[in-house]
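Dock pyridoxal-5'-phosphate; give full complex structure.
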Amino acid sequence: MNATNSLKHYAREKLAGLEAAGQQRSLIATDRLAHGRARRGGVDLISFCDNDYLSLSHDPRLVEAAVKAAYAHGTGAGASRLVTGNLSLNAALESRLAKMKGLESARVFGSGYLANIGTIPTLVGRGDTVIMDELSHACMHAGARLSGAAIKTFGHNDSEHAAQLMEEAQGQVLLLTETVFSMDGDLAPLDELAEICNAHDAWLMTDDAHGFGVCTMDNPAPIQMGTLSKAAGGYGGYVCGPTELTDLLISRARSFVYTTGLPAPVLAAAIAALDVMKAEPERAECALANVTLFAGLMGLPAPRSVIVPFIIGAESEAMRVSADLQAAGFLVTAIRPPTVPAGTARLRFTFSAGHKPEDVRAVSHALKECMAIV
Ligand SMILES: *Cc1c(COP(=O)(O)O)cnc(C)c1O
């Protein structure tokens, strides 16, 4: 008897369950191109669903920095940062990130996911409490669960609810929220949340994955994480905060200690991205102008970020509109439950600096046709 059979049986049963629930996911090979384009099945599409908000992933300055770093330092870091993988580019990137955030210090991680699952358990544990916005990203939920702390979720952006939870919380409290919410594109009430935290000596930690470099807001949080995989056009994650915290992460964050450091090309591209963000603020302005144009054309409320949800409601209808848009040359993903609440299946549009106003006009025209609202 070969154990492979029981393994296959197990996976087949699981897949059948997912398929029956309409929750089986699949991969589609996609090649990304410059200027907000992507190629699927040999067809070039204008993409309104990636997070490369400043269109930096194809910027020749980043590409050249990555290529040069690969020749100079190799394609891999070779070991964890605590062994020999702490390439000197890490310190350069970390000091740049801290400065940009206006915080004392920064620590770079392999990804944003790794930053959250390493940092949260470093800060709280059994007997403590994590209070988090219900729409917080899966990796904050994962970090909270790993920590062993009690987890309380508050209604989306409901700071009164957060304050109530604070009254009943045990031990040290860590309050988690996103700055710009990934599915809705709205902003967290950071000042209110900071006030609640300060009154209880609780720590506010924000996830700026969708704000970094494109939609910068005043942020009073002492702990600010984010990713280098979205507007920075590359890969990696970071945590900024007091030096004592970033020092502690070196010894205690398991997703920092027990994983290989980022490769030199990735680090060099990230540093080049920060240079471009600083030198060319017009890129963020362009992305914001594109989203504002789209919202105006579609009669939607003024957007607060470069993410716009277009709520359709029924899952099958969201899938149909997404397919029709693709046939018309536009890539826009349908987001379905359980990622979003039941009955709010939607298209999630994101806009970037690489889109031209004519691209935005074209997609809104196509959307109106698909929805039969012309
Ligand atoms: C994408 C994302 C992450 C994870 O970042 P990666 O660098 O892709 O691992 C974390 N939080 C939020 C809100 C995100 O959208």
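Observed: The chain has a mean pLDDT of 96.
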